[in-house]
C-alpha cells in the first residue's frame, strides 16, 4: 500500500498544477453538517457516510466529498467568475466492497463561470486529460442533461416526471418506474385492494409510527392519482431506451442523438449543448473522434451532476475505481445558493491511484 506521505506529496503536486492553471487554493472542514447533506441526498447518504453527533452542532458527517462545501463557500462569499483547487481526505463507507478504501485523498479543480458553460466543461476536461496523459488512461464521457431533458419532455404527470428525475442516478429504480408508468409491471395485489377500497382507513389497525392519518390519506390520494394517469406510450419508452443505449465515439454519438431528437424534440437543446461542447473540446486539442461517449455514464456514482460527466480509467487495472471523475453540477449551486445559481463544473483526481499506476503523472 502506498504510504500516506507519498500520497500527500502527490496531492500537493496536483494542487500545484491546478494553481498554475489559475485556481485559488481553498480548505474545507473535515466535519460537515449532516442536515445539509441529508437535505441534498436523502437518507441514502447514511449508508455511505460516517456520522457522528455533537452536543452543540448536532449530527455531523466526515467529509464525503469536497464539492458540496466548496459550492457552499462560493455561494456565500465567492466572486464571479471563480476557480478553486483543494487537496485532502474524504471518507466513504464501503460495506458492499470491503476491499475498497474507506478513507482516501482527493485533489480537485472547480470552475464557476456563467459566460460559456461548454467552454468551461472543455477547460476542465482538457486540463485533466493533460495532467493524466502519462498514465495512458481511457477517458469516458456522458451527459446526464440529455436524459433529464428526455424525462422533462414525456407526456405524463409532473409528479411522475419528478419521481423519474429523482431516480435518474438509481438505474434499477428508474427502470422499475418506467415499467410501472408504462403499465408493463403488474400492480401488487395489496396496492390494488387499497386503491379499490371506498375508505381504505375504515378497517385500519391502530395508528403507530410517525405518520398521521391525514398524511396516510394524502399518500393514498397520490397513489390513486397515479393509477388513473395514462400510461407512457411504447414509443416514448423506446426513445428513452434508444438514448440510454447510445455508446459511441463522441462524434458518432452526436449524430445518433440528433436522429433521436427528430422524434423527441425535447432533447434538442441538450444536444445543441453537446455539439458546442465537442467544438470546445476540439479547440482545446481533444480528438473527439476518439473520445468515448456513453449516454448512461455517471448514473450510479455522481448524484449531483446534471450535465456533462467524465471519468478516467486504467483499462489494465479493471479492479481499480476511476482515477479521476468530474462533471457539471448547476442544480447544486441553485440548491445551496438559496435561489442564486451559477453554472459550475469540476472534478477530482485520486493521487493514491496515480502513484499506484506508475508514479507521479
From TrEMBL:
L-histidine binds at residues 65-67, 92, 106, 110, 299, 304-305. One of its GO terms (biological process) is histidyl-tRNA aminoacylation. One of its GO terms (cellular component) is cytoplasm. It comes from the Bacteria. Keywords: Glycosyltransferase, Transferase. InterPro entries: aa-tRNA-synth_II/BPL/LPL, HisRS-like_core, HisRS/HisZ. Residues 8-197, 224-347 form the Class II Histidinyl-tRNA synthetase (HisRS)-like catalytic core domain. GO terms for molecular function: glycosyltransferase activity; histidine-tRNA ligase activity. SUPFAM superfamilies: Class II aaRS and biotin synthetases. PANTHER family: HISTIDINE--TRNA LIGASE, MITOCHONDRIAL-RELATED, HISTIDYL-TRNA SYNTHETASE. This is ATP phosphoribosyltransferase.
Amino acid at each position: 500500500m502506498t504510504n500516506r506521505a507519498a500520497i500527500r506529496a502527490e496531492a500537493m503536486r496536483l494542487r500545484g498544477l491546478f494553481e498554475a492553471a489559475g485556481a485559488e487554493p481553498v480548505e474545507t472542514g473535515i466535519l460537515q453538517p449532516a442536515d445539509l447533506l441529508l437535505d441534498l441526498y436523502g437518507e441514502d447518504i447514511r449508508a455511505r457516510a460516517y456520522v457522528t453527533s455533537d452536543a452543540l452542532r448536532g449530527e455531523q458527517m466526515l467529509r464525503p466529498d469536497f464539492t458540496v462545501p466548496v459550492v457552499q463557500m462560493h455561494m456565500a462569499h465567492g466572486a464571479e467568475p471563480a476557480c478553486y483547487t483543494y487537496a485532502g481526505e474524504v471518507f466513504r463507507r464501503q460495506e458492499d466492497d470491503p476491499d475498497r478504501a474507506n478513507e482516501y485523498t482527493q485533489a480537485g479543480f472547480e470552475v464557476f463561470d456563467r459566460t460559456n458553460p461548454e467552454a468551461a466543461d472543455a477547460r476542465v476536461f482538457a486540463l485533466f486529460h493533460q495532467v493524466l496523459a502519462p498514465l495512458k488512461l481511457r477517458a469516458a464521457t456522458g451527459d446526464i442533461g440529455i436524459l433529464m431533458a428526455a424525462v422533462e419532455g414525456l407526456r405524463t404527470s409532473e409528479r411522475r416526471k419528478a419521481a423519474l428525475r429523482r431516480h435518474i442516478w438509481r438505474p434499477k429504480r428508474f427502470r422499475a418506474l418506467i415499467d410501472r408508468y408504462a403499465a408493463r409491471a403488474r400492480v401488487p395485489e395489496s396496492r390494488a385492494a387499497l386503491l379499490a377500497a371506498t375508505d381504505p382507513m375504515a378497517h385500519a389497525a391502530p395508528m403507530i409510527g410517525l405518520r398521521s392519518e391525514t398524511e396516510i390519506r394524502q399518500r393514498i390520494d397520490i397513489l390513486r392519482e397515479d393509477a388513473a394517469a395514462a400510461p407512457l406510450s411504447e414509443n416514448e419508452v423506446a426513445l428513452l431506451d434508444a438514448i440510454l443505449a447510445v455508446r459511441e465515439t463522441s462524434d458518432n454519438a452526436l449524430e445518433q442523438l440528433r436522429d433521436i431528437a427528430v422524434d423527441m424534440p425535447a432533447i434538442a437543446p441538450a444536444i445543441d449543448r453537446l455539439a458546442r461542447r465537442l467544438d470546445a473540446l476540439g479547440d482545446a486539442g481533444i480528438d473527439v473522434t476518439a473520445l468515448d461517449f456513453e449516454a448512461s455514464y455517471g448514473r450510479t456514482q455522481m448524484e449531483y451532476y446534471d450535465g456533462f460527466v467524465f471519468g478516467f480509467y486504467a483499462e489494465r487495472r479493471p479492479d481499480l475505481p476511476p482515477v479521476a471523475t468530474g462533471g457539471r453540477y448547476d442544480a447544486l449551486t441553485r440548491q445551496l445558493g438559496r435561489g442564486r445559481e451559477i453554472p459550475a463544473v469540476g472534478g477530482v483526481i485520486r493521487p493514491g491511484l496515480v502513484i499506484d499506476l506508475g508514479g507521479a503523472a
